[in-house]
Amino acid sequence: MAPPLVRFAPSPTGRIHIGNARTALLNYVFARSQGGGFVLRFDDTDRERSREEFVQAIEVDLAWLGIRPDVTLRQSAREALYVAAVQRLKDLGRLYPCYETAEELERRRKLQQARGLPPIYDRAARKLTPDDRAKLEAEGRRPHWRFELKHEIVRWHDLVRGDSHIDTASLSDPVLVREDGNFLYTLTSAVDDVDLTITHVIRGEDHVTNTAVQIQLFGALSDRPPPTFAHHNLLVAAGGEGLSKRTGALSIGSLRDAGIESLAVAALAVLTGSSHEVHPIASLAELSEDFDLARISRTPAKFDPAELQALSQRTLHKLDFESVRDRLAAYEITGFKAEPFWLAVRGNLEALRDVGDWWRVVEGEIEPVVEDAAFLEIACESLPGEPWDETTWKDWTGLVAQAAGRKGRALYHPLRLALTGRETGPELAKLLPLIGRAKASARLRGAAA
Ligand code: GLU
């Protein structure tokens, strides 16, 4: 079988949030798990609401998540394809002009409701004669165009939801071209999926009803079989409400600004709401290893920001030096101490940006906290000569314990306060050799160093 080709198709009408990231990542991880490709397609046919700034922000957010599209394109640059598809549908007699205004349609829907009928478009425009149409156009009306559905049971095997079907008699013929000539998503999406030979459409289950219509469109536009579909459950907030695009705090940008690790966002977005346990990962590739869409559950997945925060810390605590080398360099944490420093402090970080404070303890100048100068003087006199390593702390504090007759917190805590200026922090056995003898003795004597 040819490798799969998937697409993530955001509308650039806002920043993406963790729910959108879930769709993007499920596509990406699925494609990578099978050696396939990933297309980033901006569904920007809604000219009024689409914005260039959101196109760029979405690209930045995806890159931060580790998603590298193989191809990026925009629907606004592909009009010619939609024009040709519309012509084809007209030639097939599947597209028909309608002249009802929104108010007329609303009135009809109300009537249907009052009679207990489903609010389905009654195909009245199908009965218009060429004369009727000419008259309406003479009045200045412009048509919108509907796709005539074949009434049948459309079936597909959904990779998440299993065997699925929709009776198209329960749907209105969808509008594909608006009065102003703008193409609607239902059309453009199917045209692009055909043109790009997308093999798998992986998206939120809010699109399930579009699928029957799009399968019929695929059939009308192409001789190839339609793509395989997978509709994943949606992420919902703790109270059960949907995550709207404008829920600022959950946008990928705001999670990044809050210091959340991108790998934690990815792990949570992909693993939550499935039979996988949510766990920290060291790379996106790790998610591809035992990835299976069939493990996604059918019920909505609850998104808990506290879980993400905790996962972010667990992720950080396990990151190896190579994977943070460049980010540390941005804080000017470089040189031979950078790696042992990282290994010493990573387990104490809430967010990577806290690393600068600890680097100052090792390489910069701090104010020691001195509570008992006489004790610290004894400690200072007991400092062994260099070279120091991770055993130095134990040897030294053994000597200090004897010399000062102290143990436990009374022994260790004043040393930590003097050496780091802080109440808590990474293991001193690891920090001490990085601090070095010169700074250590100055700090034990109460001098800023
Ligand atoms: N632009 C659509 C959306 O953002 C894409 C849906 C699809 O994947 O077909 O919901």
Per-chain topology:
Elements: E1 5-8, H1 18-33, E2 37-42, H2 52-65, E3 71-74, H3 79-91, E4 95-98, H4 102-114, H5 130-138, E5 144-147, E6 153-158, E7 162-167, E8 175-177, H6 185-195, E9 200-204, H7 208-221, E10 228-232, E11 235-236, H8 252-257, H9 262-271, H10 284-289, E12 301-302, H11 305-318, H12 321-329, H13 338-345, H14 355-363, H15 373-381, H16 392-404, H17 408-420, H18 428-444
Parallel strand pairs: 1-2, 2-3, 9-10, 11-12
Antiparallel strand pairs: 4-5, 5-8, 6-7
Helix pairs in contact: 1-9, 6-7, 9-11, 17-18
The protein binds glutamic acid (GLU).
Residues 9-11, 43, 185, 189, 203, 207 line the site of glutamic acid.
- Give the CATH topology of the largest domain: Rossmann fold
Order of H and E elements: EHEHEHEHHEEEEHEHEEHHHEHHHHHHHH
What would the average pLDDT be, to the nearest integer? 96
Structural category is alpha/beta
What global shape is seen? Answer: elongated
What would CATH call the homologous superfamily of the largest domain? HUPs
Question: How many domains, as an integer?
Answer: 4
Low-confidence stretches: none
CA-atom Rg in angstroms? 31 Å
Query: Number of DSSP helices?
Result: 18
CATH class category of the largest domain:
Alpha Beta
Report the oligomer: single chain
Distance linking N and C termini: 65 Å
Distinct bound molecules: glutamic acid
Could you tell me the number of beta strands?
A: 12
What share of the residues does DSSP label as strand, in percent? 5-15%
Helix content: 40-55%
Write the CATH architecture name of the largest domain: 3-Layer(aba) Sandwich
**What strand line-up does the widest sheet have?**
1-2-3
